[in-house]
Helix-turn-helix domain-containing protein (Aliikangiella maris), 160 residues
Amino acid sequence: MLGQRQKYVGYRNYVAQGVDEDISRFYNRGNYLTVLGDKAFKESVREETKEQNIEQLRKVLEDRPGGQRILELVAVIFKVKSRDIKSCPGGKRVSNPARAFAMYACQRYGAMSLKQIAVLFNLSHSGSVSFSVNKVKRELVEGQWLSEVKQLERGLYIVK
């Protein structure tokens, strides 16, 4: 479809065409994990996947690491124990870059909510999580954390 010699030009032209009416209508109805194609193709796919467990398929397609896995990788990157990242020191706020980065990573790569992250890090509310995550995001824009992000993505098998 995109040609052999000028595949990038072909792809750019394809994307520039935008979304046609059928595709727009399809996705605006909330259809996901559905097959697009003619009637015969759809029927052949339906027959092939008749025995498929939809919940199992959704989990495979989501393929997000859990908070514990992210904690373990961040601990390796920062050369600390995961319990030192997870634990919350009492009293005055103490800077813990590994902890802040792990919270950011849980949200970014684990698709965890602030509340879920607060529970994982033994916090009573999500405000502290939000503060730490936003701090790391600002620092990322400034060029910090690049090495840590690269190591984490390599550990999570993320290819860009």
Observations:
- The radius of gyration is 22 Å.
- DSSP finds ten helices and no strands in the chain.
- The chain has two domains: 7-62, 67-155.
- The mean pLDDT is 82.
